[in-house]
Design a protein that fits this description.
- The protein contains 13 helices and 14 strands.
- With 392 residues, the protein is an alpha/beta fold.
- It folds into 2 domains: 260 residues, Alkaline Phosphatase, subunit A (3-Layer(aba) Sandwich), CATH 3.40.720.10; 105 residues, Phosphopentomutase (Alpha-Beta Plaits, 2-Layer Sandwich).
């Protein structure tokens, strides 16, 4: 038995009922992309039932409408945990429901507490620049020259629970940047910061660009995840993309830190083509929709990134045996038509394809952890504390 879960990062399906408390009333990542482009989109996701999932919320995806005979079971899931960030979403997909959100920081200088910054500067031996909320692509242009001149790392945050460190690769080698991130990770645990993120960049004055050397240093999950449970009963667990970072490498048999959707999809194809003598669970994060296009509010780029995933789906399906499962879902929203540059609090789709199971409507699910519970049932593992299996 093999199950593969593709997380299209930030591919939301419409604002949750509590979205107004996050400033996200009216957000709808997939719906607004479809409306803006108003042309046929994502034929394979459509055939799986993406448009049918939208109809469960009373919405229509222009160009990706519902079909009469979907190839997958379809539904939408509401996040139970407070927040709208990568770590919260992925943890809940794997069965952890948070009772309080990760810590976020003020957008104005100084964003981070003085005690945290003082400890970071003392333990790394470097003073910092920044200490405010910013777009990563913007702040390296604003402070890049001073960083190159002084060697001081650029530290910044966003609306998410993140402590981000940017440094030029010729000034601070990536190995040193990662060392600083590990120090920050230990310091940030006391503040309940979801992620410390390394943001290396290159270039010269006026044309600094980030590299593919990003690394995320997440808090270790504060409970047992589906990955822990499956690996403990002999299921081979494979993380692709930033999955290993999000779960601090815990519960993962093989971790592939491929950068970019193309590389992650190719790695997924290779893993499935290689087969497995044991039961196998493959967990894939496809980050470009969020990192490259969602935050930069690039509607056309976001749609094309989803199209590239859409074109890969038949290739992956051809590698599945009759009992194997392919799931397509997301972790939060990042509506590229919405105000600001932040994530949006939204429902996410869930498309569950298994040849020997007749597709049905999964309805509107009350938590992402239903996916983890479904996987436990599929692999015969003990139930998780949260969630209900899609199939009872």
């Amino acid at each position: 038995m093999r199950a593969t879960v593709l997380v299209i990062d930030s591919f939301g399906m419409g604002a949750l009922p509590d979205a107004p408390s996050y400033g996200d009333e009216g957000a709808d990542t997939a719906g607004h992309i479809c409306a803006a482009l108003n042309r046929p989109l994502w034929p394979n996701l459509r055939s799986m039932g993406l448009g049918n999932a939208a109809e469960l919320l009373g919405r229509r995806l222009a160009g990706c409408e519902a079909v009469d005979d979907p190839a997958a079971s379809f539904g939408v899931m509401a996040e139970r945990s407070p927040g709208k960030d990568t770590t919260t979403g992925h943890w809940e997909l794997m069965g952890i429901v948070l009772d309080r959100a990760f810590t976020t920081f003020p957008s104005e200088y100084p964003s981070f507490p003085e005690r945290l910054i003082s400890a970071f500067e003392r333990e790394t031996g470097r003073e910092i620049l920044g200490n405010r909320a910013a777009s990563g692509t913007v702040i390296i242009q604003e402070l890049g020259d001073e960083h190159v001149r002084t060697g001081k790392p650029i530290v910044y945050t966003s609306s998410d629970s993140v402590f981000q460190i940017a440094a030029h690769e010729e000034v601070v080698p990536p190995s040193e940047l990662y060392r600083m991130c590990k120090i920050a990770r230990e310091l940030c645990d006391a503040y309940r910061v979801g992620r410390v993120i390394a943001r290396p960049f290159v270039g010269e004055n006026g044309s600094y660009t980030r590299t593919a050397g990003r690394r995320d240093f997440s808090m270790a999950p504060d409970g047992e995840t589906l990955l822990d449970r499956l690996s403990s009963v002999g299921v081979r667990t494979v993380g692709i993309g930033k999955i290993g970072d999000i779960f601090a490498e815990r519960g993962i048999t093989a971790s592939h830190h491929d950068a970019g959707n193309g590389a992650c999809l190719e790695r997924t194809r290779e893993v499935l083509a290689a087969g497995s003598a044991a039961d196998q669970f493959v967990f894939v994060n496809l980050v470009d929709t969020d990192m490259v296009y969602g935050h930069r509010r690039d509607v056309g780029g976001y749609a094309e990134a989803v199209s590239n995933i859409d074109r890969a789906i038949p290739v992956l399906c051809d590698l599945l045996d009759d009992g194997d499962v392919l799931v397509v879902t997301a972790d939060h929203g990042c509506d590229p038509t919405f105000r600001g540059t932040d994530h949006t609090r939204e429902y996410v789709p869930v498309l569950y394809r298994q040849r020997r199971r007749r597709p049905v409507s999964l309805g509107v699910r009350s938590g992402f952890a239903d996916l983890a519970q479904t996987m436990c049932a599929l692999f015969g593992a003990e139930r998780m504390p949260h969630g209900e299996s899609f199939f009872g």
